[in-house]
Automatic annotation (TrEMBL):
Protein's name in the database: EAL domain-containing protein
Residue intervals of the EAL domain: 23-277
Organism of this sequence: Pseudoduganella lutea
Coiled coil stretches, renumbered: none
Domain of life where this protein originates: Bacteria
Length: 279
């Protein structure tokens, strides 16, 4: 901070310095959080259009040493910029596979699929296919029950390498859905080249689907496209009955949202749904 001029002055601005120090402290805490097992997995149920429980999305939370529970929006960005997302993502995959293995013998849980968010960086920086193979082997999880959710940010660079890695993962038996569809880089031309089984309509479109003609047309277009490409369509952020009804009528396969179930600690999810089916 030797150079003169505005940037130097700003560096010593106490407010800016406080922000920088807070970020640095958070980053150190984030690093320790993994070894002290402060990350907890939540599950949000997913239902078929007919209303049957078909799976859950895994959503990570950070229970800090002071008891505070942080949502991913407070730390995933930092985890990505610090590289921590790779070991954190690995941990989330391991815990998810442990759950799938545990659920095998349960008449309800054993049928469910788990959707796990995978950051573009995990796919880029980590040898994800070999670590995934190791996790599947160690846990004994049924790979076909694991769905990896990617966002359109994977379209941003080196598409050929991404597709190759996805194929390597597919050959292990896992499958992919494209999350937050409609918000990012998606090129319709690329869509066909990726080995995907589902598109997940972003909740910003779902939000207005029963109110706004533009949102209605966008959702109808996405569903038509998905059907044309033989992809399932998952709607997230379903909060109102009118949204649910519209989405089901439009041909949406799977629904997720506060109307149907909130994210809850994985143990609560297991207690709530285990053995609940008719087998
Ligand atoms: P996402 O993948 O789009 O996850 C859905 C988010 O929508 C979750 O927020 C969920 O709690 C919230 N949500 C679910 N139903 C409703 C609803 O009806 N209304 C509204 N308003 N919101 C709803 P959450 O748990 O805060 O997660 C935020 C984001 O953090 C996720 O967005 C995902 O991108 C990321 N994330 C979560 N867990 C992981 C993870 O293990 N790894 C990575 N890389 N990212 C994660
Ligand atoms: Ca997701
Ligand atoms: Ca999403
Ligand atoms: Ca989202």
């Amino acid at each position: 901070a030797k150079s003169d001029g505005r940037n130097t002055a700003r560096f010593f601005d106490p407010a800016m310095q406080a922000v920088a120090e807070h970020q640095a402290a958070l980053e150190r805490a984030l690093h320790d959080a993994l070894s002290t097992r402060q990350f907890v997995l939540f599950c949000q149920p997913q239902f078929s259009a007919a209303g049957q429980l078909v799976g859950a999305e895994v959503l990570v939370r950070w229970r800090r040493a002071n008891g505070e529970l942080l949502g991913p929006d407070a730390f995933i960005g930092l985890a990505e910029s610090s590289g921590m997302i790779v070991p954190l993502g690995q941990y989330v995959l391991e815990e998810s596979c442990r759950a799938l293995a545990r659920w095998r013998t349960d008449c309800t849980l054993g049928k469910l699929e788990l959707a796990v968010n995978v950051s573009a960086q995990q796919l880029r920086n980590d040898d994800l296919a070999s670590s995934m193979a190791g996790i599947l082997r160690q846990t004994g999880a049924p790979a076909e029950k694991l769905c990896l959710e990617l966002t359109e940010s994977v379209f941003a660079e080196n598409v050929a390498a991404v597709i190759e890695r996805m194929h390597a993962l597919c050959s292990l038996g896992v499958h992919f859905s494209l999350d937050d569809f409609g918000t990012g880089y998606s090129s319709l031309a690329y869509l066909k080249r990726f080995p995907l089984t589902a598109l997940k309509i972003d909740r910003s479109f779902v939000h207005d689907v029963h109110l706004d003609a533009d949102a209605t047309s966008i959702v109808e277009a996405i569903i038509a496209l998905a059907h044309k490409l033989k992809l399932d369509i998952v709607a997230e952020g379903v909060e109102h009955e009118a949204q649910r009804a519209f989405l089901v009528d439009s041909g949406c396969n799977t629904l997720q949202g506060y109307l149907l179930g909130r994210p809850m600690p994985m143990r609560d999810f297991e207690r709530l749904y285990s053995g609940a089916g008719t087998g």
